[in-house]
Each structure stands twice: as structure tokens, then as C-alpha cells.
Amino acid sequence: MARLNLRLLGDFEVRLGSGPALRLRARKTQALLAYLASCPGQTHSRDKLASLLWGDRSQPQARSHLRGTLFVLRRTLALADPPCLALDGEAIALNGAAVDVDAVAFARLATTNDAEALAKAVELYRGDLLQGLAFRGALFEDWLVAERERLRELAVDALAKLLAHQQRSAEPESALQTALRLIALDPLQEPVHRSLMRLYDRLGRRGVALRQYQICVGVLRRELGVEPEADTKQLYRELVRRQPQGPAKAPDTKRPHRRPYAEQPRLDLFSKDSPLIGREAERAQLRQALEEAEQGHGCVFTVVGEAGVGKTSVVGTLAADATARGAQVLLGRCYESASILPFGPWVDAFRTGRTLDDDGLLDELRPVWRSELARLLPEADTAGLPAPSDNQLRLFEGVAHLIECLAARRTLVLMLEDIHWADEMSLRLLAFISRRIGGWRESRNLPMLRWRAARWRSCAENPTPRPSNSRPSRGRTPPCSFARSRAPAAMRRR
Q1: SS3 for 417?
Q2: Domain ranges of the chain
Q3: d(Cα 348, Cα 334) in Å, to the nearest integer?
């Protein structure tokens, strides 16, 4: 018994029983069989089918094409048992008792509330109806577009119901896969983005949960021009502010808005057991720059070199020297896999440094700049702030004001790691900040910005914007070299 099996969701496929796929080369032959299979047992007139597929031809020509197509179908399906194609004069139908159609089974299962049935429905939905099949100008195309949308909506609804079942049943892994499929079908479903954030966090993938928020923000801004809902922002703030449990420390009442050195997040840049050898000149150069930054002369340094030449040791020593002198050190890392996410290293630097844990710092920012900063760091958002703009320059200004406030408290060393993997907006922000250093005259201390590329050959292959006024060291590039950019001449020591 060779029963007819039709797969219409995703790529078109027709089989008799467990045999190989049958070949129907003509697109309109596939289309005719798919249309008849969409409602098995329903009869259609020859004139209707001819107009549906050959509406651009005269009626005699259209009926002639239909007769030829039906001949091919009858020959191809001749071995079906029981017979599936019913021809009765002007009426044509597909025998509903002789055919199994995945789209029909999916639609039936997707309307239930049973978890097992919903799981089967989701498994059947392998893609849009007749994926890749289209007819321009034919009435069939109108039917196909409408039917595709109907089945897609059913898939979204089925996935949402299945996700709710899995969340109630404490199946985080299965729920995560369901949520990912759902968000792929409908990226604008903000509640699903929240579900993904919670599921990632529950599975111990907090970084991916935070990244999911950035994806949500990007989709909403790009497609709708709106900001995330308050519930989404609140969930993000909760994830950001959730810190590893540790012994509580008494606050420093003498310095109310400054985090003591002991409370600074540890930067895993170097090992105390590995002494720095052969880099005394570089270390002295960086120490001198640090001293100048403490006196109000900010600058930008670039550390460039092949892998293994000691860049990490040099930078780690700088971090140790800076923290020992009471400076605040922020570290942001760039990753090749995250280069599509804008401002990644800047967000990483501010967040891992827990710069916004101190409410007093945010109070120093004007509401307009705090509102702009909340576009990058939603944890800075609060009730009563003005609506943020969609202007990138104003966002740059907000970040600049945050850095200025940090530098006004104490010397700031901002390190951006593996800058050759940075996204374009991060590089533009770096250039903007490097130009602004010289204008912060009222700050007691100015930041020394430092950015580093792990491999200078990679930088040559993937050039990045050079900060304003940078002057690379002259002569042959040594294995580990520096490019330095001072503040504008007006800010230099006279």
C-alpha cells in the first residue's frame, strides 16, 4: 500500500509510502498538487484551476495547460494506493482519505492546547509554505501569500503556547530552543526577548542574557523606532546589578562617592608570579604618562605588537601601578564574535568596572545626559528623565560627560583590549573622546585613555580610525611599540 505523503512546509516534497521522492519538475505541476492538497476532499472546477495558474492566458489556452498538467499528475501518482486524484468531469479533487499532508496536520495540531500535540506541530513546521515557490502576476501567488501568513501566525501561536508549557514544567533547555525559534519567526515579540533573557540567566549564561537585551533594543529601534518597554529595562537592570555573593564591606564614610581600591573589580591582566622582564623602558614611559594624567594632562596610548611579545605584562603592570596610586582602572574587551554589537567594549568597561553602582555618580549628570547614557547602559535610566534622542552625537556627549565625572573624582585609566575587533561605533566614540580630553578644564584629574591591538599585522589588515592628533613613534616598529596622542596644545603644560 503506497499512500501519498506531501510535504508542503519548507521545501516541496512528494512521496508514495516510504519510497523515494517523486520528481515533479514543473513549478505549476507542484503548485496544482499543493493547492489541491491544502484542502483534501474539496472539489474545484477546471475553470477555477485554469484561471488560478494560467490567468494570463486565454481560457482555451489555460484549460489546455491544465489538461497537460493533470496528465502528468495522473501518470506520476498512478501507483498511489488508494487512488488519490479524483477527476469527475469538470470537478477535480484530492482524496482526503488517501493522502497525508504536513500542512493540514500542522494546522490541526497547532490549534490545540496539549503540550505533546504542540510539540508535534512545531516539529512539522519546517519553514514557510512552499518555500521558494512563487508566481508573479498569477492569482495563485495571492493565495500562496495569504496561506503562508496564516500558517506562520499559527506557528507563532503554537510556539508561544509550547513555550508557556515548557516554562511551567521547568524545562529551561527545551524552552530556550522554543523561544529561539519563536523570536526567529517574530523578532518584534518583546515578551519573548524577556523570556530568553530569563532562560539564559537561569542556565548560567548571564552574558548572553545581557546581549539578548542589546539585540532586542536594536530590533525595536530599527524596525519600529521605539525603546524597549519598562518591564524589559527593569529585567536588564536586575541582571546587570546582580553581583556574585561575597562578604559585605563597610562603606567608606570619608569618601562617600568613591569606591576604595580594595572594592574595585579585579582585572585579570597579569600574574603577580610572572615578573616583567626586558620592558623597563616601556614601563617607564607608561608610568610617566600616568603621572602626567594625574597632573591634568590626559593622553591616548596605543600598545601594538605580535602575540607573545609581552603586551599583556606591560599593560598588567600599568594597571597595578595605577590602582596602587589610587587611580580607577576600567577594562573593556573586544571580541571577534561580538563585533556586530555596537559599543561592545565601552559597555563592557563601564559594566565590569561597576561604575554605575554609585548613585552619587549618576546624580552628578544632568538629566539630558543621563537619558542619553541610558541608551547605552539602561541601568542608568530612572523615572522622570526626558525622552532620549536618536542622535549618535548626543549619545557620544553623554558618554563623554560620564567619563568627565569619573575623571573629576580621581585619575582614570580606560583600557580597550583587542581594539582591532571593535565595531565601527566604538572606534568613532574613541576618536570623539580623544578629542574631548583637552576641553575638560574643570576636572581635577583627566583620564589617560589606552587602547591596544593584540596583533599589529591584524591591525594593518583591518585598519581602524586613528585618534585625533596621534603621532606614532618614528623609525622601525619594534616588537612592542607605542603610539601616543596628547591632548591639544592648549592643555599641555606650559
Answers
A1: strand
A2: 1-167, 187-241, 279-360+400-491
A3: 9
What is the topology classification, in CATH, of domain 1-167?
Arc Repressor Mutant, subunit A (1.10.10)
| Contact of 390 with 225, CB cutoff 8 Å | yes
With 0-12 / 13-18 / 19 or more C-beta atoms within 10 angstroms meaning exposed / middle / buried, residue 59 is exposed
Contact by Cβ (8 Å): 374, 456 = no
What is 435-451 written as a DSSP string? HHGGG-TT-SS--EEEE
Cell of 474: 618614528
Count CB-CB contacts under 10 A for residue 375. 21
The grid cell for 34 is: 499543493
Q: What angle do CA 309, 312, 318 make, to 5 degrees?
A: 120
Contact 223, 187 (CB under 8 A): yes
Query: pLDDT per residue over 220-243, tens digit each?
Result: 988 998 989 999 989 988 887 765
Domain spanning 279-360+400-491, CATH class: alpha beta
Strand order in the sheet with 13-16: 13-16, 4-7, 99-101
Beta carbons of 155 and 110 less than 8 angstroms apart: yes
Burial 103-141 (b: 16+ CB within 10 A, else e): bbebbebbeeeebebbbbbbebbeebbbeebebeebebe
Distance of CA 453 to the CA centre of its chain: 24
**Residue 32 corresponds to which cell in the numbers above?**
496544482
Task: Classify 119 in phi/psi space as left (phi over 0), alpha (psi -120 to 50) or beta.
Answer: alpha
Residue type, 56: D
pLDDT value at 194 more than 90: yes
Are 488 and 300 a contacting pair, CB within 8 Å? Answer: no
pLDDT per position as a tens digit, 105-149: 999 999 999 999 999 999 999 999 999 887 776 789 999 999 999
